Amino acid sequence: MVKIPCNKDKVWIDFAALPNAHPVRTQYYLNRANDEPDFARAGVMTNKHGDSVDVFVTKYIVGSTLEDLFDDEEVYRLRTKALMQLDARGLFMHDADVIGNILVDRDGRIYFIDADQMVIAQRQRLTCAPSFATEELEAVLEIQYQAMAKRAMKRCRRDNDYLRRLSALRAMRVQPTAMDITAARCGP
Question: Would you say which domain of life the source belongs to (predicted)?
Answer without folding.
Answer: Bacteria
